[in-house]
Design a protein that fits this description.
With 268 residues, the chain is of the alpha+beta class. The protein contains ten helices and nine strands. It has two domains: 2-113, no CATH class; 133-267, Beta Barrel (L,D-transpeptidase catalytic domain-like), CATH 2.40.440. 43% of the residues lie in helices and 20% in strands.
């Protein structure tokens, strides 16, 4: 009984730690959305909306989140999501249709960098178009903040390269998102935002244990996949992941040891 209770306590602690991490990310996204939104401005700039729902701040914010940001409406006098998305191609490649990521970037760094967040005729939402490999390479080449320690992910050839101080210290075949089920892994330039070990990754109808976990975009990241006997080749075209990058256990351990929060990931 003692060992049973101890096991339950451990599982509960892992679940809580995972939930806390997810909650923290969601809280940051929500806070950024609210910081970018000015209810007084939104009401004055959108009399058609006011005529229907009034000037209640909560209802105006809900309208913006459910409709306004997709229609190209400005959240405030200094931030229009679609303008920010359109005028910053590197962010567009990194975030694609993750509309929550843009205001977070604007609040945490974009505003200080002086990035363009407004234009005269803000566009409405348009689905993300997969960028050319050459375009990603060109942007990465001119990004002085990437440095010489980063991860390069070749989705076409299903291979990962770990650069440390400009040298490849590890490379490995991988399995990425299942193309057949339209779960392709994201293309773009990202950053690892969390590191964790020994936990369950769960979804509506699945649950897997991983020893190493390094997410870089939403719930997509690098992790070991001990249930796989083979990696690389064309596996991703018929039996790929749900978007994550599956690595052999020993390679995932090496990546975990050398990776850090904020480490760049170039995926093409």
């Amino acid at each position: 009984m003692k060992y049973f209770i101890t096991s339950l306590s451990f599982i509960f602690m892992v679940a809580v730690l995972w939930a806390v991490n997810v909650t923290e990310v969601e809280a940051r996204l929500s806070a950024a959305q609210k910081q970018c939104f000015d209810a007084v401005f939104y009401a004055e700039d959108n009399p058609d909306v006011v005529s229907v729902i009034g000037t209640n701040e909560k209802k105006l914010f809900e309208h913006y989140m459910d409709h306004g940001r997709y229609e190209g409406r400005s959240a405030s006098s200094e931030f229009n999501l679609m303008s920010y998305r359109t005028n910053n191609r590197d962010l567009y490649i990194s975030f694609a249709d993750d509309l929550d990521a843009y205001p977070l970037h604007f609040i945490e760094s974009g505003k200080q960098e002086g990035r363009i967040a407004m234009c005269d005729n803000p566009p409405a939402f348009e689905p993300f178009k997969r960028p050319l490999i050459q375009e990603i390479a060109e942007i990465a080449r001119h990004r002085t903040d990437i440095g010489d320690t980063y991860v390069e992910l070749d989705l076409t050839n299903q291979h990962l390269y770990l650069f440390v101080n400009g040298e490849v210290i590890m490379d490995t075949p991988v399995v990425t998102g299942d193309v057949k089920k339209n779960r392709q892994s994201p293309v773009g330039i990202f950053k690892i935002y969390h590191k964790g070990t020994d936990r369950y990754l769960t979804g509506p109808d699945w649950k897997v244990w991983v020893n190493y976990w390094m997410p870089f975009r939403g719930n997509i990241g690098f992790h070991d996949a001990t249930w796989r006997k083979r990696f690389g080749g064309s596996i991703y075209q018929r039996d790929g992941s749900r978007g994550c990058i599956n690595l052999p256990l020993d390679k995932a351990e090496i990546l975990f040891e050398h990776s850090f929060i904020g480490m760049f990931v170039i995926s093409y």
